[in-house]
């Protein structure tokens, strides 16, 4: 039976692209760069074709596609990251990479799915994940395993918290949804495709989502660059926002050519 609604479409797109990426990952490549390139290209091609077939009237904003200004006048825009965490994807046996598929509709995120294909897991807004109970322990902050930002290290020190290293942005956000971390704080800048689907799923699970100053996250903007992001358990939002407000302002982050800052 074909998917019946936008939530199921998002789930189906993300799961199917993830299954394709698992196949791509199993091939033999000359080096990690070639594996990354093949993953990005084939997942993007697959999602573009499926969206064109099933949602021909909707616009698309994808990390791997050319940005078409027509999306700004569209009522519905799919915001897609065909492969989030290319470094992790290219490394054998790592599971912390993802596929993001979100639908923006008339000003709001309306549906979303984050697939973690190496775990055989997809979290989506059609079946909102149940947020695990809070644990009586130091605040756990999901952070990049390769380049933990000073902001999050300083925040952990201020709160007496712990850093939980992992790969892609989607995996970090889903770690909060799954109860593996308490917050994902990112001040280094991202593109909309890095966070749209994770934010949609996090909201469905009842998590707090905002900019680091507490203002709303906006999607399908003329400039798809988002300077910062907070996803956290709702009972921690005020504490984290207050602590972040007291910290020194960092210089505006430089933009990568693609959404690689996680």
Describe this structure in words.
The chain is of the alpha/beta class. The chain folds into two domains: 6-126, Fructose-1,6-Bisphosphatase, Chain A, domain 1 (2-Layer Sandwich), CATH 3.30.540.10; 140-245, D-Maltodextrin-Binding Protein, domain 2. It has helices spanning 6-25, 32-54, 86-90, 150-159, 169-177, 192-204, 237-245; strands spanning 59-62, 76-84, 98-105, 108-116, 121-124, 140-144, 162-166, 183-186, 190-191, 208-210, 225-226, 229-232. It is globular. One of its GO terms (biological process) is sulfate assimilation. Mg(2+) binds at residues 63, 81, 83-84, 194.
Quick structural overview:
The chain is α/β, with parallel strands linked by helices. The chain has seven helices and twelve strands. The protein folds into two domains: 6-126, Fructose-1,6-Bisphosphatase, subunit A, domain 1 (Fructose-1,6-Bisphosphatase, Chain A, domain 1, 2-Layer Sandwich); 140-245, D-Maltodextrin-Binding Protein, domain 2, CATH 3.40.190.
CATH architecture of the largest domain: 2-Layer Sandwich
> Which CATH class of the largest domain is shown?
Alpha Beta
Backbone shape = globular
Q: Whole-number average pLDDT?
A: 93
Helix content: 25-40%
The third-level CATH topology of the largest domain is Fructose-1,6-Bisphosphatase, Chain A, domain 1
Class by helix and strand content? Answer: alpha/beta
Number of H- or I-type helical stretches = 7
Query: What integer value in Å does the Rg equal?
Result: 17 Å
Secondary-structure element sequence?
HHEEHEEEEHEHEEHEEEH
- Lateral strand order in the biggest sheet: 1-2-3-4-5
Low-confidence stretches: none
Organism: Blastococcus haudaquaticus
Pfam families: Inositol_P
Catalytic activity: adenosine 3',5'-bisphosphate + H2O = AMP + phosphate
Binding site for Mg(2+): 63, 81, 83-84, 194
